[in-house]
Design a protein that fits this description.
The complex is a heterotrimer of chains A (278), B (371) and C (300). With 278 residues, chain A is mostly helical. Among the domains of chain A are: 147 residues, MetI-like fold; 30 residues, no CATH class. Chain A is built from eleven helices and no strands. In chain A, helix 3 runs antiparallel to helix 8 and helix 7 runs antiparallel to helix 8. The longest helix of chain A is centred in the C-terminal third of the chain and has 41 residues. Chain B has 371 residues and is α+β, with helices and mostly antiparallel strands. Chain B has two domains: 231 residues, Rossmann fold (3-Layer(aba) Sandwich); 123 residues, OB fold (Dihydrolipoamide Acetyltransferase, E2P) (Beta Barrel). In chain B, the strands form four sheets. Chain B has a six-stranded mixed sheet with strand order 6-7-8-3-9-10, with helices on both faces. Chain C has a single domain, classed as Orthogonal Bundle (MetI-like fold), CATH 1.10.3720. In chain C, helix 4 runs antiparallel to helix 7, helix 8 packs antiparallel against helix 9 and helix 9 runs antiparallel to helix 12. Classes of the chains: A mainly alpha (278), B alpha+beta (371), C mainly alpha (300). Chains A and C meet through helix 1, helix 3, helix 4, helix 5 and helix 6 of A and helix 1, helix 3, helix 4, helix 5 and helix 9 of C.
C-alpha cells in the first residue's frame, strides 16, 4: 500500500489531461493544413496565417477587443481592489451583506442573464437620459468591468485575509494614518495579486462572447463575436490559425508568469533559510 | 531506564536484510534487527537517516525493495496495513477532525466489526487509562496538543495490537509535558505489555524510554544496544558524538601494549592511553573519546600516575546549579568540555576564567574508536 | 484596521469613499438591471423601439401585466426546456465530479514539484479562449472530423459515427469547458487535508474503500459543494456550447432567452424567462455564497 499514486489514479490523470489537450493540439496541427476542408489533411502550409493577417475584419475586431480589455481590466482592478480592501479590512459596515452578495454573484451568474440585464439597463438609460447613444465600446467596457470586478475582488480578498495584519498595525503604531498605510504598506504587498487580477480581468474581457453580443451595437464587433459568426457555419481553416496564435500567445504568457512567480517564491525561501542559518 | 524484564529472548519482531530504494536514493540499507517481546525499542537518528521509512515499512505503508519483516513468527512483509497486528501513532497524530474523541478511538474497533457493547466498554477503559474520559464527546479542534496526543495513543492502543509504532511521539510537546508523558508512556507500556517501537531524533528521550536503542545513520544501524552500552561504550564516532557530549582526540597509534595502546595526537601535548581488545598496529588512525563527566579538573596536578593528564586554561565556564560546565583550552588550542557536579557548597576555591588548570581521566573511562 | 473610537473624520471619510465607489457602480450596473428585468417582464411586447410598453399609463397610473409569465407557465415547451436544462446541467456536473475528483486527488497527492506542473496544465486551458476550446471540439466531432477519421482508419467503423449536433456532443463540450472549475476547488480542499488521516484509517483496519468513505469524502465535502455549484449554475444558462455542438432538438434555456430577445423581439417574454431562471438558481447561488463564507471563516 504505497503512498504513491495508485495505478487507477495515474490512468485517470492521464485520461483527464489527454481529454483537456487533444482538442487543442488537433487545432494546432490542422492550422497548418493546406486543404480548405479543415479536417482533411492536404499537406503542410502556412497560408492560413498569411490570410489571417490580411483579414481586415478580424484585425479590426482584435483591436477593438484589446482596447476594451485593457480599459475594462484596469477599471476592474481599481474597483475590485477597493472592494477587496473594504471587505477584508473595514470590518462590519452598513450594507456589507448586500455588498458582499453583489460582489460574488457575477462569478456564477449565467452570462445570458448578465448580458440581458445590462442591455435592458442601457436601453432604459437611453430612454431616460439619452445616454448611451451608440452601443459599442463604452457599453461593452462597462459590462466587462462589472463582471470582472467580482473576480478581482475575490483574489484581493483572499490575498488580504492570508496576509499578516501585524505589518499594517506596526505601520500605524509608528504613526502612519490608515490612509497612508494603505498606500505605503498594503498596496505594495498585494501588488502581485493586483497584477494577477488585472491579467484575469483582461483574459475574461478578451474572451467574452455572450455579454458582448448583448450590449454591443452595429459596428462594434469584438473578436469573439467575429469568430463566432464564422464558426457558426462550421470549422474553417483560418480560424484554426487564429486559434493557434492565441493559444501559443496565451500559453507563453501563462508559463512565463507561472515560472516568474515560482522563482520569486523560491528566492524568498532561500533568503529566509540563509537568514535563519546566521 | 525501563523497568522491564525482557527475559524472553525469542525475537518477536524480526527485520531481515531490509532495504528500501527510492530510485537511486537508498533510504534503508540492508538492516537486520531482532526485537524481543515487550521491549520498548527506540530507533534514534537525525532527519533523513531512514528511521521513518523503516517504521513505515513495519506499518505497511512502504514495501521494502529487499528483505522480509516478521512479527511473532509470521511474515507480514506483503500484508496491507489494515491486516497487520500493528498499529501506529503518527507524528501529526492524524486525529480525524470530523469525529469526536470517542468516535476516533472507536474507529478501529468498528472496522473489526466488534459488537457495539464491547466497543463502548473498551473505548471507556482506554480513555480512562490515558485520562481523557471527560473529553469523550469533544471534537479535536477543541483539544490542546497534549490532549490530542493522548487521543492518538488511545486510538492506537484500543485494538491491543501486538506491536505499537510511535513516530516522534513527544516532538510536539513542550518540555514539562514531555517529561511527564515520557513516564506515562513507559507505565502504559509496562501495564499492557505491548512491544513498542519508537522513532525519535531526541537522544535524551531515547535514553530515558528505551530498553534498547538502535542508532541509525544514512540507512544503516551504527550500533544497537542498551542505553548504558550505547552511552558508555559507543562503537563509532557517529554514535559517540550523537549521544550526549563527548571529547574526541584524533591521532595515530604510537605504541601497542597488552590490551592498551598509546596514541599520539595533535590535540594533546602528551600521549594518551586507551584500553582496547582490538588488534592494533602502530600507525593506525584512532580516536580517543572521553565524556565530560569522566574528566577531573583541578588547579593542582593530580597525583595518580595512571591517569592521562593534560594542562590548559579555563576558556569558558557555566554554572548550572547542580553542575558546572567548563570549556578548557589546551596548549594545542583544542577545547575540552568538562562537567563537574557541585557536590559541596564552597569547599574548594572556585575556578574562574583564565585560571590554569589540570584535567585528567582514567584510561578505562575513555573509549578507543576506529570507525 | 477598524479602530473604534480613534478614527478621525478624515479616516472615516476615505473609508466611506473606498466602499462607496464600487458599491455605487454595482448598484447601478448590477442590481438596478435586475429591477429593470422585473419591470419589463410585466410589460407588453409591441413593435417599436424599445419593443415594450411603458410601466406607466398616460395618466400616470401603474400598469403591469403578467401575460408573459402566464404564457411561460402554460406553454409546455418552456417547462420542458427548463427541465432539460436542469437535467443537462446536473448530469454535466456529475460527470465533471466523476472525472474531476480523482484528478484533484491525484494532483493533491503528488510530490510538490510535479504538483506545480500538473496544476499549471489544468489552469492553462482556462486562460485560453472558451470559445476556441469549444470550437476545437467541432473539428474533432464532425462527421469527417478527427475522431471519425481515426476510427474509420482503424477500421472500427465503416461510416462516420454521428456525434456532432447531438446531446452527447453538448455533454462533452460542457464537461470539457467546466472541468477546471470542478478540479480547482476540489484540489484546494484536498490539499489542505492531512494525508496522514487516510493512512491512520488504513492502519486502524479500514480497507481503502472504507477509508475513502469514512475519511476522504466527508472532509472533501466543502470542495465538492463548491465545485458542483461552480459548474451547475453557469451550465444552466449555457448558450454557446449547445448552439455550436448541439442539434435542434437540444433546446436549452440559454438559447431560448437569446432567441426570444433577438429573434422574436419579445423583450417581456425574454425577461420573464430570465426571471424564472434566476428563481431556479437563487437557492444554489445563496447556498454557494453561504458555504464559501463558512469555509473562509472556519476552515476544514
Amino acid at each position: 500500500m504505497n503512498r504513491g499514486r495508485s495505478r487507477f489514479l495515474l490512468s485517470v490523470l492521464a485520461f483527464g489531461y489527454a481529454f483537456l489537450y487533444i482538442p487543442l493540439i488537433s487545432v494546432m496541427v490542422y492550422s497548418f493544413n493546406d486543404s480548405r476542408l479543415a479536417t482533411v489533411w492536404g499537406g503542410f502550409s502556412t497560408r492560413w496565417y498569411g490570410e489571417l493577417l490580411r483579414n481586415e475584419q478580424v484585425l479590426d475586431a482584435a483591436l477593438l477587443s484589446l482596447r476594451i480589455a485593457v480599459l475594462a481590466a484596469t477599471l476592474a482592478t481599481v474597483f475590485g481592489t477597493m472592494a477587496g480592501l473594504a471587505l477584508s479590512r473595514f470590518g462590519r459596515f452598513r450594507g456589507r451583506t448586500l455588498f458582499s452578495g453583489m460582489i460574488t454573484s457575477p462569478l456564477v451568474m449565467p452570462e445570458v442573464i448578465t448580458g440581458l440585464s445590462l442591455l435592458l439597463l442601457f436601453v432604459s438609460l437611453q430612454q431616460l437620459i439619452g445616454w448611451p447613444g451608440q452601443r459599442g465600446f463604452m457599453t461593452i467596457t462597462i459590462a466587462h468591468t462589472t463582471f470582472a470586478m467580482a473576480y478581482v475582488t475575490v483574489i484581493i480578498q483572499s490575498r488580504l485575509s492570508g496576509m499578516d495584519q501585524s505589518l499594517e498595525e506596526a505601520a500605524m503604531d509608528l504613526g502612519g494614518k490608515p490612509f497612508r498605510v494603505v498606500f505605503d504598506i498594503t498596496l505594495p504587498l498585494i501588488a502581485p495579486a493586483m497584477i494577477a487580477g488585472w491579467l484575469l480581468a483582461f483574459t475574461l474581457s478578451l474572451d467574452d462572447l455572450v455579454i458582448a453580443s448583448f450590449v454591443s451595437g452595429p459596428g462594434g464587433s469584438t473578436l469573439p463575436m467575429v469568430i463566432f459568426s464564422k464558426v457558426k457555419l462550421g470549422v474553417t481553416p483560418d480560424i484554426n490559425a487564429l486559434a493557434t496564435l492565441i493559444m501559443v500567445f496565451v500559453s507563453t504568457g501563462v508559463i512565463i508568469a507561472w515560472y516568474a512567480a515560482r522563482r520569486v517564491q523560491r528566492q524568498t525561501e532561500k533568503n529566509m533559510q540563509a537568514a535563519a542559518k546566521q | 531506564m525501563s523497568g522491564n524484564n525482557n527475559s524472553n529472548s525469542d525475537s518477536f519482531i524480526q527485520i531481515k536484510d531490509v532495504s528500501k530504494h527510492f530510485g537511486d536514493f537508498v533510504a534503508v540499507d540492508t538492516v537486520n534487527l531482532d526485537i524481543a517481546r515487550g521491549e520498548l525499542f527506540c530507533i534514534l537518528g537525525g532527519s533523513g537517516c531512514g528511521k521513518s521509512t523503516l517504521l513505515r515499512i513495519m506499518a505497511g505503508f512502504e514495501t521494502p525493495t529487499t528483505g522480509r519483516v516478521f512479527i511473532d513468527g509470521v511474515d507480514i512483509t506483503d500484508q496491507a496495513p489494515y491486516h497487520r497486528p500493528v498499529n501506529m501513532m503518527f507524528q501529526s497524530y492524524a486525529i480525524f477532525p470530523h469525529m469526536t474523541v470517542e468516535k476516533n478511538v472507536a474507529y478501529g474497533l468498528e472496522k473489526d466489526r466488534v459488537t457495539k457493547g464491547e466497543v463502548k466498554t473498551r473505548v471507556g477503559e482506554i480513555l480512562e487509562l490515558v485520562q481523557m474520559s471527560q473529553f469523550a464527546k469533544r471534537k479535536p479542534d477543541q483539544l490542546s496538543g497534549g490532549q490530542r496526543q493522548r487521543v492518538a495513543l488511545a486510538r492506537s492502543l484500543v485494538k491491543r495490537p501486538k506491536v505499537l509504532l510511535l513516530d516522534e511521539p513527544l516532538a510536539a510537546l513542550d518540555r514539562k509535558l514531555r517529561e511527564h508523558t515520557q513516564f506515562e508512556l513507559m507505565n502504559i507500556q509496562d501495564e499492557l505489555g505491548i512491544t513498542f517501537v519508537v522513532v525519535t531524533h531526541d537522544q535524551e528521550e531515547a535514553m530515558i524510554l528505551s530498553t534498547r536503542i538502535a542508532v541509525m545513520d544514512q540507512g544503516r544501524f551504527e550500533q544497537v544496544g542498551r542505553p548504558k552500552e550505547v552511552y558508555e561504550y559507543p562503537t563509532t564516532r557517529f554514535v559517540a558524538d550523537f549521544i550526549g557530549t563527548i571529547n574526541m582526540f584524533e591521532g595515530t597509534v604510537a605504541d601497542v601494549g597488552d590490551g592498551n595502546i598509546s596514541v599520539d595526537s595533535d590535540d594533546a601535548s602528551a600521549p594518551l592511553t586507551g584500553l582496547t581488545d582490538k588488534t592494533m598496529q602502530t600507525g593506525d588512525e584512532v580516536c580517543i573519546a572521553v565524556r565530560p563527566e569522566k574528566i577531573y579538573i583541578s588547579d593542582h596536578e593530580p597525583d595518580n600516575d595512571e591517569d592521562t593528564r593534560l594542562s590548559g586554561v579555563v576558556h569558558d565556564l557555566g554554572y548550572l546549579g547542580n553542575l558546572s560546565l567548563y570549556h578548557i583550552r589546551l596548549k594545542s588550542g583544542k577545547i575540552v568540555q568538562v562537567s563537574a557536579q557541585n557536590r559541596r557548597r564552597s569547599a574548594e576555591r572556585h575556578l574562574e576564567w583564565d585560571d590554569e588548570v589540570f584535567i585528567s581521566w582514567r584510561p578505562r573511562s575513555s573509549v578507543v574508536l576506529t570507525e | 484596521m477598524v479602530i473604534a473610537g480613534t478614527e478621525s473624520t478624515r479616516d472615516t471619510l476615505w473609508q466611506r469613499f473606498t466602499i462607496a465607489i464600487p458599491y455605487i457602480w454595482l448598484l447601478v450596473f448590477f442590481l438596478a438591471p435586475f429591477a429593470i428585468i422585473l419591470k419589463i417582464s410585466t410589460a407588453d411586447p409591441i413593435i417599436g423601439l424599445p419593443p415594450f410598453t411603458s410601466m406607466f399609463d398616460d395618466d400616470g397610473s401603474f400598469v403591469a401585466t403578467v401575460d408573459s409569465f402566464k404564457f411561460l407557465l402554460t406553454d409546455k415547451l418552456y417547462g420542458i426546456t427548463y427541465l432539460r436544462s436542469v437535467l443537462m446541467a446536473a448530469s454535466a456536473t456529475v460527470l465533471c465530479l466523476l472525472l474531476g475528483f480523482p484528478m484533484a486527488y491525484g494532483i493533491a497527492r503528488s510530490s510538490p514539484a510535479t504538483r506545480s506542473i500538473l496544476l499549471l496544465l489544468i489552469i492553462l486551458p482556462f486562460w485560453i479562449s472558451f470559445l476556441l476550446r469549444v470550437y476545437a471540439w467541432m473539428g474533432l466531432l464532425n462527421n469527417y472530423g478527427v475522431i471519425n477519421n481515426f476510427l474509420m482508419w482503424l477500421g472500427v467503423i465503416d461510416e462516420p459515427f454521428r456525434i456532432m449536433y447531438t446531446d452527447l456532443a453538448i455533454y462533452i463540450g460542457l464537461v470539457y469547458s467546466y472541468l477546471p472549475f470542478m478540479i480547482l476547488p476540489l484540489y484546494a480542499t484536498l490539499e489542505r487535508m492531512d494525508l496522514d488521516l487516510v493512512d491512520a484509517a488504513l492502519d486502524l483496519g479500514a480497507r481503502p474503500s472504507q477509508a475513502f468513505r469514512d475519511i476522504t469524502w466527508p472532509l472533501a465535502r466543502p470542495g465538492v459543494i463548491a465545485g458542483c455549484l461552480l459548474v451547475f449554475i453557469p451550465a444552466m444558462g449555457e448558450y454557446v456550447i449547445p448552439y455550436l455542438l448541439g442539434g435542434p432538438e437540444s433546446l436549452l434555456i440559454g438559447r431560448v432567452l437569446f432567441d426570444e430577445f433577438f429573434v422574436n423581439r419579445d423583450w417581456p417574454l425574454a425577461s420573464s424567462v430570465a426571471i424564472v431562471l434566476l428563481m431556479l438558481l437563487v437557492v444554489p447561488i445563496v447556498f454557494l455564497q453561504r458555504s464559501q463564507a463558512k469555509d473562509a471563516e472556519g476552515g476544514a
